[in-house]
Amino acid sequence: MRFTGSYTALLTPFRQGAVDERAFQELVAWQIAEGTEGLVPCGTTGESPTLSHAEHKRVIELTVEVAKGKAVIMAGAGSNSTAEAVDFTQHAQQAGADAVLVVCPYYNRPTQDGLYQHYKAIHDASDIPIVIYNIPGRTSVDMSIETMTRLAELPRIQGVKDAANDLARPLRTRLAIGPKFSMLSGDDITVVAFLAQGGDGCISVVSNVAPRLCADLHQAWRVGDLAELRRLNEKLAPLADALFVESSPAPVKYAASLLGKCLPEIRGPLVEASPNARERVQVALRQVGLIN
Questions:
Q1: Taking CA 170 as the corner, what is the angle to CA 42 and CA 117, rounded to the nearest 5 degrees?
Q2: What are the pLDDT digits (tens) for 151-210?
Q3: DSSP for 94-131?
Q4: pTM of this structure
């Protein structure tokens, strides 16, 4: 299975401490209508570390209810426990997801062989395509290209979300593994450079609030319209910066609240965006033309 284009790392709306199911499904439907090609619930932006297992599984089910057959559903299924990641992956498959996104185990700091065995166990316990999520800045472990190449030999390990903040890496990964392995950026501000270095798409935070612009950027890349690609990239850049001025997803939740998509409510230990961050987000949304 190939994963290309504009994917959204979906935020999880809360209302008075609980998952706001109606707001979430309305967000999913809006994303599809605006041209988003893939949906990624229960990732970092979806505050997966603070969701209970029941909430996590319910959010996947809510996504499938709205999006099945309309967009690729790549369910977050990672954990720093192999058994938990297997359970999340099996549930996502049963719920009807098209693929799972599995983050490298955080806090434990496994060796490269430990990473291989973790993903192989998930692979062997399921029949769903698996995308590796390598984000060493959050997990304190960096999967090497050699380990990724080894994993890519397994038939259902089919791609990577690369948030290693190394723009030489997608080219080296492409040369090591070949064209069938999907490579998705995890960084909005460098997405065009990532595509130029061999990437296939982006799992985006920005597309939570600017899905049409993000989808149009990827379409411009596909058809080779470099002038339009540059215009959209420059237009979205201030928003990409503003949404990471503080720990994500607090700024993007505030931005989405200004668009009427959810409340800015967030779960501890994170807190809502500060007054300074809110001002930065407002300015960026005006620059992009999303609010007056």
A1: 60
A2: 999 999 999 999 999 999 999 999 999 999 999 999 999 999 999 999 999 999 999 999
A3: HHT-SEEEEEPPPSS---HHHHHHHHHHHHHT--S-EE
A4: 0.96
Query: In whole angstroms, what separates CA 190 from the centre of its chain?
Result: 15
Tens digit of pLDDT for each residue in 87-109?
999 999 999 999 999 999 999 99
Q: Which of 57, 161, 253, 261 is catalytic?
A: 161
Does the annotation mark 161 as catalytic?
Answer: yes
97: in domain: yes
Number of domains the chain contains: 1
What single-letter amino acid sits at 131? V
Domain contains 245: no
pLDDT digits (tens, 9 = 90+) for 235-251: 999 999 999 999 999 99
Mean pLDDT of 268-287: 97
Is 133 annotated in the active site?
A: yes
Tell me how far apart the alpha carbons of residues 250 and 216 are, in angstroms, rounded to a whole number: 25
CATH code for the domain in which residue 78 is found: 3.20.20.70
Catalytic residue among 7, 133, 254, 261: 133
| Signed CA dihedral, 287, 289, 291, 292: sign only | positive
Residue 271: inside a domain: no
Of the chain, the end-to-end C-alpha distance in Å amounts to 41
